[in-house]
Amino acid sequence: MIETIECRYEILRHIRYAQPVGRRALAVLLNMSARVLRSQVEFLREAALVNFSALGMEVSAAGEALLPDLTDYVKALRGIAAQEDILAARLGLKRVLILPGNADCDETSKRELGRAAANLLGEYLTGDKVVAVSGGSMMAAVADQMTVRAEATTVVPARGGLGDRLEYQANSVAAVMAQHIGGSYRQLYVPDSVSEETLAGILAEDEQIKAVVNLLKRADVVVHGVGEMYKMARRRSLKEDMLRDLQERGAVGEALGQYCALDGRVVYVTNSVGLLLHDLNKISLVIAVAGGASKAEAILSVMRAGQQHILVTDE
User: Fold this and answer.
1) What is the pLDDT of residue 203?
2) Alpha-carbon dihedral of residues 31, 32, 33, 34, nearest 10 degrees?
3) Which of 155, 211, 230, 303 could cysteine-pair with 174, CB 3.0–4.6 Å?
4) Rounded to whole angstroms, what are the CA distances from 13 to 44, 131, 142?
5) 9-10-15-18 Cα dihedral, nearest 10 degrees
């Protein structure tokens, strides 16, 4: 019965994020035989948890209402709740939220992480709040899943721009999040990896950037992702000699433009305007969001490098 429950849970999760979706496409997403899938979705249809149409399957209102409780139930079956407590104690965090799945091989798990982090963040958006967000695909998922209304909230990018896909840049993430919650946002148009002299000149001459930086310094909440050192170095187009230097220094993770070793040492900082890991000590709430088995060492390195309060990750 446990295997059946988990199977139906995975089917519901994937339908919700791919809907409307046909059986053949869903079978590919789940790596499941069409015969097994057919019998399970038929059960879900008869239980009024899934609706069928000419466009494909969609999760019904009853299915949507069931999924949060079903997620908690699957976590209990797998012993995840106990793992959350153990990991929070080991890392010195107030809370760890672990979701079923592995974001490395399942896009649905990444979107579930985004939804969970968005719901968690929404609990704290009361009154006049300043929220700083980093860039990346994970943060884009968080912004996209925001549903709470918080008109008094101002969202700002935690760092200057990164030469990456536009929708993954911190400026874009801040704008999307603000639009979803009905709040306001500010932009920080400063590229990564410029010289310290250039940065000093920008801050001295550009009043708008200076105002955003001052706003960042009094942020109430920071939500950031965690990257693997090698992937982030490639995204920032670091030269091969710098990449080798990072490897020799033991860098395994990256957050907010800083590269960290497994023991929490910050071994390299990219030149950009915005928050650094040591600035997190002054922030009331810091939420890190990262999933996938490949990020295990990166997550540990960042958790040890600067104050964190909550980690949202996956199994």
Assistant:
1) 62
2) -100
3) 155
4) 12, 29, 17
5) 150
Q: Long-range CB contacts (< 8 A, 24+ apart) of 79-88?
A: 80/315, 87/311, 88/311
pTM recorded for the entire structure = 0.86
Determine the 3-state secondary structure of 161 from DSSP. Answer: strand
Measured CA to CA, the distance from residue 254 to residue 260 in angstroms comes to: 6
pLDDT digits (tens, 9 = 90+) for 25-64: 999 888 888 888 999 999 999 999 999 998 999 999 999 9
The CA distance from 144 to 174, in Å, is 10
The list of the chain residues with pLDDT below 70 reads: 161-165, 191-206, 271
Angle between helices 34-46 and 2-18 (to 10 degrees): 90
Q: Checking DSSP bridges between strand 285-289 and strand 310-314, what pairing results, if any?
A: parallel
Q: How far apart are CA 275 and CA 134, in angstroms?
A: 9
Which of 231, 294, 303, 226 has its CA nearest to residue 263?
Answer: 303
